[in-house]
Structures are given as structure tokens and as C-alpha cells.
Amino acid sequence: MTYGSGPTAVEAIRDVSFSIRPGEFVCIVGPSGCGKTTLLKSIAGLLRPTHGTALIQGRVVDGPPEQLALVFQEYTRSLLPWLTVRRNVELPLKARREKRDECASRTVDALHAVGLSGFEDKYPWQLSGGMQQRAAIARAIAYRPAVLLMDEPFASVDAQTRADLEDLLLRVQQETGVTVVFVTHDIDEAVYLGHRVIVLSGRPTVVRETVDVPMGWPRDQVATKADPRFVELRTHVLRQIHRERTEHPPQTH
């Protein structure tokens, strides 16, 4: 992905290639400004790569795929403030022209899954930040996507809420089998959540390494993060990111 042309062109992504298996949870990490969000938007069909293609289930992505959902970092901009939680969750289902009973059933199930039963008729501004992000996740779950893209979805909440949302997401992913591609700056979060961690280089971006996380399920915030294997993996990934920051400092244009 290159922005602009001529001497002022910015090569954001050079050569990034990887495959993700159905039902897999893959986290993407890399130095700040390396193009993680650009990559995610390319997969989502919101940006067209300068060269190359993204494919979902063997089909070239040339626009937002119907079987894909995207959860953003900024939940305050993701939820429509004039709609109740229930209406926010139902919104994409109505766009797909789902039957009314089906919309209602999926919405109830999704809100129950994220612990928001009883808050259906509240407005987003009446909820805490963590609850708003739960509502955004519920909307994605209710849509029942084959692939769920998440762009630093927990970066704007406090540490305890973040841990709760991580465990919520793991439980939902295990129950539904949805394929998750999760961008994060938090190395601990990436190792805790993922089956694999894809480490990107500094800009222009390439895949520096793919790290398998051979730890069992379910995972636990205390026991898993105290496991010597977890400590070894997060140290290895952190060392890779630190090396990229040192060898490829952020460029200004």
C-alpha cells in the first residue's frame, strides 16, 4: 500500500502475506505507525491495496464483505447515540433484511453473551466505556460474521475492564468459532488471546515473524500470565518490537 506518488509517496506496506485458518484467533502487533490499521482496512475492503489482494474464503475482497464484521477502538464513534443499545445491535441485521423475530432473538442472545441483559433500552451515553464496547461486540456477535476484525478494541478502557473484555472475547470466540483478526499494541494481550501472533516490521512493513502460542484453553488472567511459557513468548515478541523500533525509527513526511 503506497500513499501518494512521486517523491512524496509514502510506502506504508511493502510485502505482507499470511493466511489464517477458519476458527483461528490471530493477533497482529508491530511498531507504532507500521500500518496495522491500514492492513486491517484492506482486509475489510475499506481500502484498496496499491498491489496485491486480500481474500476471504477464497474470494477477492473488492468491498466490505457481507460475512465480515469490524469492531473499532473508538466505541464512542461506533455506537449511534440516538439509538438504544437494542437498536444499535439490531442495526446491521435490519440492513441485511433479517426477519423481525430473528433480529430480536439474535439481539437478546448477543446482549446476554456480553453481560448486558437488562440494559437493552439504555442509550450508549448512559453506559460506562466498558459497557459501550460490550455493546459494540454484541452487535458484531449478533451479525454472526465468519470473520471478526478488531482494531485495538480495548485500548480506551481501564486495565480491569480490559482484562474482563479479553476473557469475554475468548469465551465468545470459543463458543461461536468465529475467525478473529485482532490488532493491538499490547504484547501481553496479543500472547494471551492468540493462537498465533504476527509481528510486523517498521515501515515499509513486512511480516517479520509469525509466533505460535502453544498454550491450552481456557486461559486465565492470573495462571496463564504466570506461566513461564507465557513470559518467554511475550519477552520474545517484545524483543522483536524493540528491535524494530531501534532499527526502523518512525519516519516523518
TrEMBL record:
Taxonomy, superkingdom: Bacteria
PROSITE patterns: ABC_TRANSPORTER_1 (PS00211), ABC_TRANSPORTER_2 (PS50893)
Cross-referenced InterPro entries: AAA+_ATPase, ABC_transporter-like_ATP-bd, ABC_transporter-like_CS, ABC_transporter_ATP-bind, P-loop_NTPase
Keywords: ATP-binding, Nucleotide-binding, Transport
SMART domains, per the entry: AAA (SM00382)
Domain ABC transporter: 1-227
Molecular function terms from GO: ATP binding
Signal peptide limits: none
Pfam family, one: ABC_tran
PANTHER family per the UniProt record, alphabetical: ALIPHATIC SULFONATES IMPORT ATP-BINDING PROTEIN SSUB, TAURINE IMPORT ATP-BINDING PROTEIN-RELATED
Protein name from the UniProt record: ABC transporter ATP-binding protein
Organism: Pseudonocardia xishanensis
Native organism taxonomy: Bacteria, Bacillati, Actinomycetota, Actinomycetes, Pseudonocardiales
